[in-house]
What does this fold into?
Amino acid sequence: MTGSLLPRLRARVDDEHLVMVALGLYIGALVTLAHLHALALAFPVLTVAGFAGMTIMSTFNIAVQPVLPAWVRGRGLAVYQLVFAVTMAAGAAGWGLLAERAGLSTALNAAAGGMILNILVATRVRLSIAEDIDTRPLHAEIPQLGVRTDPADGPFSSGRPG
It folds into this structure.
């Protein structure tokens, strides 16, 4: 469902507003889950939360790609994904610890409060903040050595006997 609906939403809504609306839906879902006591009612709320979470994550994944220069995009995306995965795991452990010590409702309400702070930050820091940054390498020119080199020079050769 998310895969077919998101492209249509992205065609109509810019990334910043899409993330803010998804954060709002996620906040509503967390607060609802914090006060919900019927398991059957939790399923539609979790569906909304899942859609909102996937919208946020996919929008961030798309937003990071054009910011990275082509010559390092693969490595940059790998680092981004690593940081994302580590922080998700650390966050899950932290929220689980809070839920164990203070209760699930408290943890869900605290998470909703944190997401409200995210919306406040998002009104100041735009996803498009890095669009005007020149990401070309500092030394894009081919260096001139002043001497002629041969591929067979040096400790490594092309595999042909010298």
User: Anything to note?
Assistant: The CA atoms of residues 99 and 107 lie 5 Å apart. Helices lie at 2-12, 15-35, 39-64, 73-102, 104-124. The radius of gyration is 24 Å. The longest helix spans residues 73-102.
